[in-house]
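Quick question, first post here. What does this chain look like in 3D?
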Amino acid sequence: MKRFIILIIIGLFFFGCIEKEELFVEKGDKVLVDYITYLENGSIIDTSLQEVAIQNSIYNKNREYSPIEVSILDNNGYIKGLTYGLIDLANGSNETLIIYPEMAYGKYKDEEVFKVETYYTFNLIEELDKSVLNQDFELNEIIQENAWNVTVINITNNTYTFRHEPKINTTFIHMGIPNSIYDLNETHAFVKVNLEEGSTHYFEHPISHTLSVGRVISVNDTLITIDFNQKLAGKIIYMDVWVRNITKRQ
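> Answer (accepted):
Ran it through. Tokens below.
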């Protein structure tokens, strides 16, 4: 009788009446995922699939194309829309996630767009209060700065007066922005900001004063517009995802 029952169970297993338990993604799991990320107009902006990258002219030979591992936890380095969009998906499933800005790269903020002058001047003669300096200087002392020398030309009880001594075509960085001096006179330097439309740089953020990525969105003879919003801010993101494997939380 016991042997008969065992044979029935084995038969049911092989004929599919007893199936392996299906796994679903839960918070705390680790999920191996392939993906294709694209915008509302269908343009593909990222993928873990090499053949898709090649077909859409976004292939990067310096990166590895393979599934990514997503921990279903807060602050895991991935956008929330992907992290929480995977929850309840079955192992082996393929779904399309529609991710709104709040769960992707945030809303677009007009206050993160700044303008700088394309051309400007600065005074070669600079007077500074001694209280803001952390060292003493002597009259006619030459100070070697990164881009040019500075000479001490006057000293009072409370101030130092310096003369900046750049040369034409001198290049320098100010607030993370490349500049070049195109003309000089006795009192002023004439400067051009060297930025091209469409370029991306690390700039000193005008408010936080931290190094931040900014995109140059327009350049003309008077103003340069720099956008510190994330490139995909304000956009709806679409992601086709394939759940390749689920490692359950311990």
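The helical segments are 2-14, 50-55, 80-85.
The longest strand covers residues 237-247.
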